[in-house]
Amino acid sequence: MAAMQRHWDIFCRVIDNYGDIGVCWRLARQLVAEHDLAVRLWLDDPASLQALAPDLLIDRPTQRVAGVEIVHWTDDFAVDRVADVVIEAFACELPAAYIAAMAAASPKPYWINLEYLTAESWAESCHGMASPHPSQPLVKHFYFPGFTPATGGLLREMDLLARRDAEVSNRPPGEALEISLFCYDTAPVGELLDILAASPTPVSCLVPPGKPLAAVSAHLGGAGPWQLGQLRVQPIPFLAQDDYDRLLWRCAINFVRGEDSFVRAQWAGQAFVWQIYRQDEKAHLVKLEAFLERYTAGLDTATKAAAIALFRAWNTGQGLAAAWPDFLAKRAQLAEYNRLWAAELAGAADLAAGLVKFCSPKV
Ligand code: TRH
Questions:
Q1: Of residues 9, 88, 245, 259, which has the active-site annotation?
Q2: Domain that holds residue 328
Q3: Is the C-beta atom of 117 inside 6 A of ligand 1?
Q4: CA-to-CA dists, residue 28 to 39, 105, 171, 252, 332, angstroms
Q5: Which DSSP string corresponds to 229-251?
Q6: What are 269-301's pLDDT values in tens digits?
Q7: Same domain for 97 and 168?
Q8: Are residues 72 and 186 in the same domain?
Q9: Is 20 a catalytic residue?
Q10: 350 is catalytic
Q11: Structural domains in the chain (count)
């Protein structure tokens, strides 16, 4: 590794939820652990990271966790040094003083805008695109995560699938069908619970705090846990990111949302249902269809129809009761397919490795 690329600054603003920091924290840890880089994570809302990284102390201006230097990004931001690679996560807008310092630096740092994940094909043509700064001698590059080798790939730790397989092979089969429920409060959660409550066999539904638990409480009343016939609905704590992975490996069906949990469910190799982050004018439904087209391309007709129907029902609130029985019946086929899907995706370079390569001096 050339010395000039050792220092990376990642800037992250939390818009809402945990996706922005979820992605940045995962990336930062991986750059340290697998690429031996010195990474600073500038974060405007440390409390949101504490949920995913319980070792973090929210009242510290700066601290080191998992080898990453975490700096509270406040309004009185001052530049001490410019990194060799600067990641602006999700167009969060770097401080003007930092941009000026980048412009004055020699050599100029690599400046990357890390974009949101989409399965739409335009991500391939936009990936890597250069955007010269209007007034400074700087060029920013757009880095698009994605599902094909022509994009920036997906976040995946080097040993992730091996760790998953080792843990799954040691696990005794449980009595109940385990379901994890991470969703927005706009999902048809009440309808799902009613369907599950009619199950003739035991079902355990594990619900993290925040919007998922709020939606469950709104439907069932009280704070839980709840027992409804064969259905047990169990509130669980918000888990550290690595423990959340283990939960996804363990559950037979994972409801996930947004960006990062959606990707983790794909690595988990279990059946999953994705609730996409809502956008104005239903733009998210176009993204959903783009993913469904890519993801279900290798499925047999019946399993494909079952997956598509459930994803659409979960995202539109229409048709859940009709879609659920087929999805449930196909969950073993979906799990098997998802393991192959994960293995195929893992054949491409992971996002962190791709970024390191992208930001290496071209000789
Ligand atoms: O929280 P999200 O809804 O984040 C969203 C999306 O990223 C969306 O695209 C973005 O625009 C918006 O935020 C601002 O869902 P996501 O992306 O799955 O992020 C959740 C993170 O929380 C992910 O890193 C997994 C982690 N997590 C845990 O670490 N432990 C837990 O117990 C749970 C439930 C999640």
A1: 259
A2: 160-345
A3: no
A4: 6, 23, 30, 30, 34
A5: TTEEEEE-PPPPHHHHHHHHHH-
A6: 999 999 999 999 899 999 999 999 999 999 999
A7: no
A8: no
A9: yes
A10: no
A11: 2
